[in-house]
Every structure is written in C-alpha cells, then in structure tokens.
# Entry
Amino acid sequence: MSVFTNTFSFEILHRSKKSNARVGRITTPHGSFMTPAFVGVGTNGALKALGHDEAIEAGMDLMFANTYHLMVQPGEDLIREMGGIHRFSGRDRPIITDSGGFQVFSLAYGSVASELKSQGTKKHSNSVLKITEEGVKFRSYRDGRTIFLTPETSIGAQKKIGADIMISFDELPPYHIPKEALRSSFERTHRWEKRSLEHHKQDPSDQALYSVVHGGIDPDLRKKSCKILSSMDFDGHAVGGSLGKNRDEMIEMLSYTIPCLPPEKPVHLLGIADLPSLYSSIPLGIDSFDSSYPTKAARHGTLLTEQGTLRIVSGAYKEDPRPIEEGCPCRACRTVSRSFLHHLFKANELLGLSLASAHNLSYMIRFMDRVRQKIILDAV
Amino acid sequence: MSVFTNTFSFEILHRSKKSNARVGRITTPHGSFMTPAFVGVGTNGALKALGHDEAIEAGMDLMFANTYHLMVQPGEDLIREMGGIHRFSGRDRPIITDSGGFQVFSLAYGSVASELKSQGTKKHSNSVLKITEEGVKFRSYRDGRTIFLTPETSIGAQKKIGADIMISFDELPPYHIPKEALRSSFERTHRWEKRSLEHHKQDPSDQALYSVVHGGIDPDLRKKSCKILSSMDFDGHAVGGSLGKNRDEMIEMLSYTIPCLPPEKPVHLLGIADLPSLYSSIPLGIDSFDSSYPTKAARHGTLLTEQGTLRIVSGAYKEDPRPIEEGCPCRACRTVSRSFLHHLFKANELLGLSLASAHNLSYMIRFMDRVRQKIILDAV
# Structure
C-alpha cells in the first residue's frame, strides 16, 4: 500500500518456482486487475476503432492513454471540467497515462529504427523548441501553440486528466548518444522524476505514480537508476528509455535491470508487448505491458492467432469459411468468417478495422490469461 | 402471396383513415418486418462502420446491398460458393439487392445534382462502354475487367447473391433527356424488366422480385409504367428513375404514380429517406425506403435528433456532458457524451464514426416506429 494513496495496492498472489515471474493483483480506484496484464493503448482516450464496451467485453482491464495527445486535444483542462478521463470518456475501469515526455522526445529524435537508419544524424524536428533543466518547450502539432512540459506541468496535466496511475516526467535520450551526453541526460531525468514525485506528493488524491527506469543500454547506469528510484516512494516502476536496437539487447538490459528493483512493487514495460518479448520478459518479473501493436497490426490486416499471424488480405482467406480462430469468443470470431473479413478489407470497409481490432485485443487478453495460469502452475 | 415463391408475403394490418398510409408486414425467408420501414444501405454487404450485430441491436429489419459493388468485389460467384449473402456476411435477417443498373447509369450520367450543374452537357464516363438492347457493358472500377449487365445477368447475379428481395434490371435515363429519348428508354426499360421477371420465373427459389416504375417526371409515362408493371407478376414495386430536380417535383410525381400501383403489393422508394421526404411520401402509401444518408451524414458528424440535426464537430458540443439525445437507446447515447464524441471526431478516431452511425441508424428506426404508431391511430 502506498503511503500517499489508500486506494492503490499491489499484491503478489503467486511467485513462480521456475523463474521470477509472478501473478499479482493491482487495485485502483476504478477496480482491480490481475497481472501480468496486457494494457491496450487508447491514445486519445479510446482504443482505435473500438469502444470501451468492446474493450471491456474483450476483458481489457487497464487502458493506456497518452498525456501528450490529450493535452493537445481536447486539453487537460477540459477533461478536468468534464469530471476527469473516466467520466469524460465513459470508461469506468482503470486507466494509466504517460508523462507526455516520450512523444515529445520521439518527435525530437525519431524512433530507434529511424535513428538506426539515419546513423544518428537526424536533428531535432522543429516541433521541439528548447530543452532546459526546467523542461521542454514544444509546438503543438494541432494548433501551433507553445506547450511547456516540465515535471510539474506533466504531473499537473495527469492530475487534471485523472488517470489511476501516472508516470513521472522523464527525458528520452536518443539511442545514438555520446556516453557523456547520456550521463548528463541520465542525471537530469532523475532530477525530473524526483520533481515529479514531489509535485505529486503535494496532492496525491487517489492517483498512483510510477517512475521510469533509465540508463539506456549501459548496465551500470541502469543499476544506478534502479537504486535511485527504489529509494523514492513511487507506487511502481516502469522501464523506459532506449531499450536497445533489437529484442536481444532489450532482454539483456531487462535481465540485469529488473532484479535491482524492489520485488514488492509492480513493474511496467513501456511500449512493448509483442509475443516474443512477452515470452522473454515475463519470467524476469514484469507485471504489465502496453503496446499499440495489436490494434495497429489489426488495422493493417495482421491477425494474431495461436497458429501465428494471419494476413487477412491474403488471397488464401478469400473463400475460407472459418472464423479467424476457432473457439475465440471475440466479436469478429462470433460474427464473421475469414472470407467476409477478407472482403471487408478488400472493400475498404471500416467495419473490417473494428472487427480485426476486437480480435487482436481479445487475443492479447487471452494470451495473458494463459500466461497467468502457467505461472500459477510454475510452468513459466 | 406471390405465385412464384411461397415464402414472400405482404399483409396490410392497418389502413389510415386520414391518408393512403398503411401499416403492413412483409415476410421473407429470413424473417418478417413491419412497414413502413427504413432500409439501411450496406453497399458491400455490411453497413458502413457498423456490424450486423449493431444493426440488429438498433432494430434494422431489412438491409439494402448493391449488386454492382458485390459483383466487382468479391464477385457473385464467390458469394454463392460461400452459401449466399446471408451466410457469407453473417446477417441472418432480410436483405434486398438492387439490379446494379442504378450504379452503372449513375457512372454514365452522374447524379441529378451534377447534371443540373452541368446543364446536361456531361457525357458518358468512360466506365460505361456500350448500351444496347441486350444490356450495358461497363468496365469494373476495381480491376478494369469488362462486365456485361443484362436483365438475365443482373437477375443471375442477384440469384447467386441470394437476397430475399431482388430488383428488376432497368435503365436509368438522365434528368436532362429529350422527350423522344425518354420514350425510347422507357420502352426499353420495360422490356428489360419483363426479361428480368421471365428470367426470375425460371427458378424463383425463395426470392421475391420487385419492378421499378419509370417515366421520369412525365405523368403519362409514369401512369403507363404502373399499368405495364401491374399487369406482370412482380412481388412488389419500387419507384426509381429520375425523381425530379427537387423534393416538390418528386412528391408531385409520387402523388400521381402511387395510386396507379396495385394497393395489395408493397411499394419501395429507391434511395430516398430524408425526413421531409418521408413525411410527405408515407401518406401516399409507400412501404419501404432505403438511403445511405443517415450513415453517411453520421460519418460527416451530422447527427439526427428530434430537435433537428446536430453538427457534433461544432464547438457548441465541446463541453456538453449530455448524450446525443436523451432517452435514445443506441450504443452512442448509452456510452458517450456529446463532449467525448466531439473529441473523437476532432481527434479523427474511427470510433466516432461507428458511434455516430449507430445513433443515426437507431434514430431512423425509432422514427419509423413512431410513424407506424401514428398510422395505426389514423394520425398520418
């Protein structure tokens, strides 16, 4: 139980005998859910092409919303006026928001993939105007107005939005960064996280706050980050920053990072929930994972099944009368065949995007159900 | 009861004492529904942005699908192989298909509105290759292949698609047409309809066939069309062709056309279901109306309410916590506020399109419910 909130808690119900995997329960003011959990991404306060009713039907317990996007549209003040994100969006179940930092710095540096392509020569985009000790000044992509994001304004915005779980404001350094610059960014990001926590403490309300572990792919810095953040009263810890240039680098980094975090606090992995990464990182003791991949892939016609991914636009499914996956309880599998879904994609029908998204979300939720059962049986 | 099918019937349950409006029940192999009925348009076999589950939840009894689009994608042969449109699409309720003629001739001549703009100078688009006594040859917009649509191939395609109600293949002459050309088109369209019926009779299966009344805005031709078509064994009659350059012209045309049709057969108005047209034409004795307007308007942010239309993207709804319409049972009104729906549109979220479409469809269905109640009370 956090000392700041009396409504957030994390209980560990079972620790695997085979690994550091654990089954837990996180309780928030909007309900409890089991971990490890897949966290669907509802950037603008709703999953892409899916209603909250459909997400709840699929069994999604926690939704991840993006503070940056919500600040730009409709604005955190409007959300507060409307009674907070739950009442505003009509979702009465747990919600987590990020700090906005990831989006701002992604705009500045681009993704790791685009960086690898550009060999680190890509300069700041002109949307980021200035980064100082105080915070980062950027231009709204929507209306051009200047937004100043600091630990205090990020936490302030997240408080107005009113998510159950917030994330500290941090700096996301690029993958290609000189060692000295990484160290300097590292120190600043921990000062920003401390300021985030201090600002949160002034009025904790019913919200919880997670830190973000940094240090890039430098083992010493990652361990140092865990030490610094563990000494503070965060309700949980998220792992962020540059996770490496491929999955192996990420798993290696996680394998020396997670053991340095306090085992009684929940751990979230930011932005990663592809199946191979889940298989590799759940045994390390990570409790929640957000990713827009399942819904984004769905909109591009890539469907997740136990037999692997299925490209619904492929001619192979043109006359396939079976559901996407036998036994799947999702709306798509209940109501349409692969053949009709193939047709909907070929005919550019929006309904195809909704049905495919419902399936992939359901798949991820059911995948996590099975993982939890395996952990309880000490099989993971 | 048709002499050709034993599963299609139209019963008149009440005739208004105030007008020619009537409440009826149409029975098809996939169920019965009450008339006057609003018929949602599912061009490619599904409503835009709405699943069959949502359409059924909204109370939509009959879906209109477009043979032209289904021939182009996925093709009528595939639909037959998949067990017909009901099994293929997963909709187990009544479906009506058109002949494909409307789309082909619209491509050739454009809409009445664009014609009025062009003063009738617009020539055939190059998608229509040739119109002969036999039929019309056109190029598929999808893959460029030549499709030859005749009364026999249209009915053949509609039989493969397997809708409960089919529509005769007809010619849609442009609004700007010399009197002699209209008469010549008029005669050909009735020969085509006769061939449609004869082709249908060869294997009526469980399908019903409606004629299409033609004659443009010439009262004598319209009356003559009714006389010709009434003498044949159609299961019902649709009113099509150029309906006039505005609503007044259309209502005038309908007012001398409908009384010439056999009162015991159902009458469908093709492509028109805006509220003022419904108010004016239901008292004339029309039983069903298809239109893509409610779902198309929804996708453009125009919502139907008893207080008139509402432009959800307007700033007026930015902070409006009310549902679109108090008391509306639709998914949008149950789950989101005007404020959140406004935000979804501003943020370009697909979910906004689905929710708005669900509302407008529900509105039309409930509007028709009320109309039927009023007819029963002799108030319409």
